[in-house]
Amino acid sequence: MAKRGNGDGTYYKRPDGRWEAKLTLPNGARKSVYGRTRADAKAKAAELMRRSDQGLDVLSREQTLAEFLERWLADVAARRVRPSTRESYERVIRVRILPALGKTKLSAVTPLQLQALYSRLLDKGLAPASVVRTHAILHGAFRQAVRWNILPRNPADAASPPSIPRQEMRALTRDQVMSLIDTAPDPVMKTLYAVAATAGLRRGELLGLKWPDVDFARGTMVVQRTAHRIRGEGIVYGEPKTNAARRSIRLGSFVLELLRKHRASQLEHRLKAGPAWQETGVIFTSLYGTPLEAARVSRIFQRDLANAGLPRVRFHDLRHTAATLLIEQGVPIKAVQSTLGHSTIATTMDVYAHLTPAMQESVAEAIDRLFGAGAT
């Protein structure tokens, strides 16, 4: 038999022995909660009404974390970030978060659970920077849940991601860059290394370059897109990382000559390939015109470093190399910032302008010019 509480809904004892409380929320929606006893059902009904009175979306709090993150990716992340970033969010959620917390109710996720997740990821060998990225994604998703009135507070606020050790960025010297270019067996990679180590482009920017971006008469190159592989879509082209990343760069005659030779060689391969050639207009391609894959470029780079007897560095360190070599040659830091496409000069100073022996020597020489070598 149905029993009505004191203005707090209608209660039924179900055939399975549980008690059900049927409520009409202030927005007119009907909602049921269940308990092992009438007292349990009444307590849950009171909590439901309390949340409704606070303006929280009580109809959504029972969804799992997996369900919520799927909605957040589609409705929020996909409209705020580049496709490649959205794809990386999806991968982090699928691989790192859902196996541990995917079936947990969104409303039940606690800071302690998040802290335990971070510890497990670190114990598995994940880099601290990757765990911090996982935390950032969760924090952003929970922040949206608060804005949507699904959660009263952000559980990630009380969880502490690990600190990230400052990673020393390494640069190749001018002679090492020339050795890499001279010994690389693939002419395409020779040219790619030359552009990367002198113009400081990011890997995605390099692989997104097309021939109309190069003005041989003026000696310039325009960066206006990036290339990334998206799961299920292949290689896609997107906007540069920031507004400052959309830039025009002056190229040296050495690099321009390599680009001219590469363009002539690519045209020859196009004729040889015939119908098998896939015209994309991309500068750095395979023998059949298809864009180079970022992962493949990095593998070849490591092989070419080893063959040249050079230290193992990341492909991104060619960007650091470009900045360091420019600064060593006395190029104003503001010009280096523009070349690299940084939004602020502070980023350039903080990340790329580390002192090298050559720069330290220039400081000593400048002091000697000011005060004299023999001043006492």
Question: Could you please describe the fold and organization of this structure?
Answer:
By secondary structure, the protein is an alpha+beta fold. The protein folds into 3 domains: 3-53; 65-158, Tyrosine recombinase, N-terminal domain (DNA polymerase, domain 1); 174-315, Intergrase catalytic core (hpI Integrase, Chain A), CATH 1.10.443. It is built from 14 helices and 9 strands. The protein has helices at residues 38-53, 65-80, 83-101, 111-123, 128-147, 174-183, 187-199, 203-207, 253-273, 294-307, 317-328, 333-340, 345-351, 357-371, and strands spanning 3-4, 10-13, 19-24, 30-35, 214-215, 220-223, 226-230, 234-238, 247-250. Strands 1-2-3-4 form a 4-stranded antiparallel beta sheet, with helices on one face. The longest helix is centred in the C-terminal third of the chain and has 21 residues, at 253-273. The chain starts with a strand and ends in a 5-residue tail after the last helix.
List low-pLDDT spans: 1-7
Number of domains: 3
> Can you tell me the CATH class of the largest domain?
Mainly Alpha
Between the first and last Cα atoms, what is the distance in angstroms? 104 Å
Second-tier CATH architecture of the largest domain: Orthogonal Bundle
Radius of gyration: 29 Å
Overall 3D form: elongated
Please indicate the percent range of residues in DSSP E strands (runs of 2 or more).
5-15%
Q: Which class of secondary structure composition applies to the elements?
A: alpha+beta
Biggest sheet: strand arrangement: 1-2-3-4
Q: Strand tally, please?
A: 9
Helix fraction?
40-55%
CATH T-level topology of the largest domain: hpI Integrase, Chain A
- Largest sheet features: 4 strands, antiparallel
What's the overall average pLDDT, rounded?
Answer: 86
CATH superfamily of the largest domain: Intergrase catalytic core
- How many DSSP H or I helices? 14
What's the SSE pattern? EEEEHHHHHHHHEEEEEHHHHHH
